[in-house]
Amino acid sequence: MGQSSIDYAFLTGIDLLFLPAYSPTLNPFEGVWKITKNMQPITGFSSC
């Protein structure tokens, strides 16, 4: 985000929240991803 964006937000009364790059507690989808990434893909093939 450039300085002009920050200045514009300040002048228009917009509050900006700067979040850490990785914040799983702020992203509810992280819990879903934790479950789905451990699931095995379902295929029609057997590895017997």
Describe the model:
With 48 residues, this protein is an all-alpha fold. The chain has one domain (3-36). The chain contains 2 helices and no strands. The longest helix has 10 residues, at 3-12. The chain is elongated, with a radius of gyration of 21 Å. The N and C termini lie far apart (53 Å). The model has no long low-confidence stretch (mean pLDDT 78).
Per DSSP E runs of 2 or more residues, the count of β-strands stands at 0
Question: Which stretches are low in confidence, meaning pLDDT under 50 for 5 or more residues running?
Answer: none
Average pLDDT, to the nearest integer?
Answer: 78
Q: Number of domains in the coordinates?
A: 1
Strand content: under 5%
- What is the CA-based Rg, rounded? 21 Å
Distance between the termini: 53 Å
H and E order = HH
Q: Percent helix among the residues?
A: 25-40%
Structural class: mainly alpha
| Main sheet record | none
User: Assembly type of the shown chains?
Assistant: single chain
Report the principal-axis shape: elongated
Total helical elements: 2
How would you summarize the topology of this molecule?
Elements: H1 3-12, H2 29-36
